[in-house]
Amino acid sequence: MYRSTESRQKESGTKRVRVLNRLDGRYKAGISYDARVGFTAPQRRIPCKYFYDARGSELFDEICRLPEYYPTRTELSILRAIAPSIMSDFTGGDLVELGSGDTTKIRTLLDTAESHNRDMMRYIPVDISQSAIARACDDLLSLYPELQVLGIVADFTYQLDAIPIERPSMVCFLGGTIGNMEPDESMSFFREIARTLKPDDRVMVGFDMVKERSILETAYNDSRGVTARFNKNVLRVLNNELEADFDERDYDHLAFFNDAESRIEMHLVANRDVRVNIQSIGLEIEMEKGETIHTENSRKFTRAHVEDMANQAGLCIQDWYSDLNEWFSLVLMRPVTATGT
Fold first, then answer.
1. How does DSSP classify residue 120?
2. pTM score of the predicted model
3. In this structure, are residues 65 and 311 in contact, taking their beta carbons and an 8 Å threshold?
4. pLDDT by residue for the chain (341 residues), tens digit each?
5. Which sequence spans correspond to the domains of the chain?
6. What residues form DSSP beta bridges with 162?
7. Are the C-beta atoms of residues 205 and 178 closer than 8 Å to each other?
8. Which residue in 12, 16, 186, 271 is a FRET match for 261, CA 20 to 30 A apart?
């Protein structure tokens, strides 16, 4: 799935795109390790980043268009309102998007930039899915022939060093993806961002805010069952990558809000007693009916929580943008300088 160090390069006049693979053998080693640790734990689990093969990316794009799934459209409405001011202050350099996926949001920013400004920019999508990177590059090249694109296939949760930092940068971490990290992971991530950014660089992060339980749970239990298929896609990835024999018909989708942890949890619930062989790592597991595989957390935030995280990480909040209902927030941050400003 992720083999070549440099996947491809296109050049045509002023149009140029490169895609670099920084995962190589790390992906197989990572999923093997996570499967072994996760499926031998008392609460079986697998990280949600393994939802995303080509099919998983397509399903998530479909989720983002569902009427029940408010985060994407709410964040996009905020982004459309603030894009002119954001891009007026960003005159060239690298526009980095972590977990790029669909290009709608980044196009909102690029559309606002003048063509002569885009000519000085480089867009850097970073994603674990090579197919998502390839699709983003193709989409943007057709729209912005003057734009330079450097796609990086990498796991940004531990490979931020794969991103070049020599140019002025604005890092975009959108979609509320920060909520998929455990609290200690998100703090480590923000500290690494703060350490990596130069004094004039910026990072813009999307936070899904705490709200009524019914709104949250409906967003992850859509009437068309798309989220259920997305949840089960991790089994398909495990089958393909680790020669496992999971049968998705043996599992039901479960998503609920955990008040104590302020997060949506997604699980796959065994609907009968099952035995699974994960051949490539030599692991056989047995699950009783009702046992679950914990596949995703999506934490929800308060403003006080975000401000505390930024302060502990060495980041200063420059601007805070929310919709009228305060369901979602986009927060623009910069590293704290030596003088504390």
1. T
2. 0.91
3. no
4. 233 334 444 443 344 788 899 987 788 999 999 999 999 999 999 999 999 888 998 999 999 999 999 999 999 999 999 999 999 888 889 999 998 777 889 999 999 987 778 888 999 999 888 888 888 888 888 889 888 999 999 998 888 999 988 899 999 999 999 999 999 999 999 999 999 999 999 999 999 999 999 999 999 999 999 999 999 999 999 999 999 999 999 999 999 999 999 999 999 999 999 999 999 999 999 999 999 999 999 999 999 999 999 999 999 999 999 999 999 999 999 999 744 55
5. 6-26+62-212+303-335
6. none
7. yes
8. 271
Alpha carbon dihedral 206, 317, 197, 163, in 10-degree steps, equals: 0
Three-class secondary structure of residue 62 per DSSP: helix
Distance between CA atoms of residues 89 and 108, nearest Å: 15
Burial annotation 212-241 (CB, 10 A radius, 16+ → b, else e): eeeebebbbbbeeebbbbbbbbbbbbbbeb
CATH class of 6-26+62-212+303-335: alpha beta
200, 163, 209, 204: which is closest to 305 by C-alpha? Answer: 209
Beta bridge partners of 298: 264
Q: Which of 153, 136, 142, 144 is nearest to 112 (CA)?
A: 144
The number of C-alpha atoms within 13 Å of 189 and in the hemisphere containing its C-beta is 21
CA distance 210 to 279: 41
